[in-house]
Amino acid sequence: MKKILCLGLLILLAAAARAELKLPKVFADHMVLQRELDIPIWGWAEPREAVTIEFQDKRYRTRADKEGKWTLKLAPSAAGGPYELTVSTKGTSLVFRDVLVGDVWLLGGQSNMEWALKNTNHGEDSIKVADFPQIRLFEVGRNMSLSPMDDVPEATWSLCSPEAVANFSAIGYYFGKNIHRDLDVPVGLLDINWGGTVSEAWTSPDALLTHADFSEKVKNNQTNGPKDFSNPDDRKPNSWPTSLYFGMLEPVIPFAIKGALWYQGESNAGRAYQYREIFPLMIADWRKQWGQGDFPFLWVQLANYKQPKEKPEDSDWAELREAQTMALALPHTAQAVIIDRGEAGDIHPRDKWTVGERLALAAKKIAYGMDVVYSGPTYKSMTTEGDKIRISFDHLGSGLVVKDKYGYVKGFSVAGNDKVFHWVKGYQDGNDIILSIGEITNPVAVRYGWADNPDDLNVYNKEGLPANPFRTDDWQGITFGKK
């Protein structure tokens, strides 16, 4: 009899827990809701229970389904606040205070996006003046899962202050500060990243099941993988495709956002040709899962890293940069080139201010339609003129600049049909670059900045943005076929 009573009590307690009015942690005091878009709100209540939301003098009603899940959308709103948002059922009322409406940006990727402001160049100076109450910081704690989750275990909203921002993403902070300053709107930053991770860990099974390199592993993980990652030996995200998508990202979808920032690729550099496929696959996947159409997706191209080489060589990092550039074929995308901001001995360049500023330029063009120069020179064409080669560019801005008092360029190499590259000399001719072929027979290919660390590149536009590394050949690279 006691066992029956205990079982009955447990059932009642479980039912009560399910019936409690609850929203995911992304809805909380101090949150920022996306302006000028429908605002999805969702949560849980007693099955079939009526749910009412009040916001900006408007009232919305819905009803939980048979499982207790409910969802609705608030009407688009202009930037402003602070407001209160009230969610209530017959017996319970939740009030979220100090709610702003502005622009919400997702910060995704690995350690360079995660890198804390306190660990950057002049970070302590930036922290001292980081008092921006209309910039709000949302941080998701590290978590892994191979199946859908209702919510993340750990996440908080906070106002941007010296105390809150010290351990926050430096790139995210500098980007958010720039957008808030120049557009005069509240900014919410969703910090959802994990150092050292691969892009497939952040991609849904729906997408990865369509890719031959991952479909079988995803199926196997879903069937035989760990259920709760309680074993420390299992807590290796790169071993489990989709684990961070479910564990950290999917629980905040479809919280309305303006766009996404992405800094990742180092951990995929050994499989750069594969990245040509899985990076745009991830972007398309996120857009599909959010249901917001082709929202702006901006990323950081890999910086220069490792020791410079005396002779031109193949490079997996150069191939990864090329794969990132190829993803620009997707609509509403841009990349911040930081080939001039890396450090040979440190995979984590400490200059995050420049990265945030260049991402903000890209956002102003792609997300806000402002008339700004947001890209450095990009390769346009190559023509042979006797013993010289002329290279022309797009995205010149106000004009080409070579940062050398004599106008001599660096970082260019040329190869003939033997596919052996040699450094070549060159100079600026208006908005073109002229390269001297020298003794190279039948030159057919040019490369610029094609190295792990092409540390002496000096081609920019007048706006100070560096030229994007490129190659004119399509010869098979060293990461071809690697999985």
UniProtKB/TrEMBL annotation:
<dbReference type="InterPro" id="IPR005181">
    <property type="entry name" value="SASA"/>
</dbReference>
<keyword id="KW-0378">Hydrolase</keyword>
<dbReference type="Pfam" id="PF03629">
    <property type="entry name" value="SASA"/>
</dbReference>
<protein>
    <submittedName>
        <fullName>Sialate O-acetylesterase</fullName>
    </submittedName>
</protein>
<dbReference type="InterPro" id="IPR039329">
    <property type="entry name" value="SIAE"/>
</dbReference>
<dbReference type="InterPro" id="IPR036514">
    <property type="entry name" value="SGNH_hydro_sf"/>
</dbReference>
<feature type="signal peptide">
    <location>
        <begin position="1"/>
        <end position="19"/>
    </location>
</feature>
<keyword id="KW-0732">Signal</keyword>
<feature type="domain" description="Sialate O-acetylesterase">
    <location>
        <begin position="102"/>
        <end position="334"/>
    </location>
</feature>
<feature type="region of interest" description="Disordered">
    <location>
        <begin position="217"/>
        <end position="236"/>
    </location>
</feature>
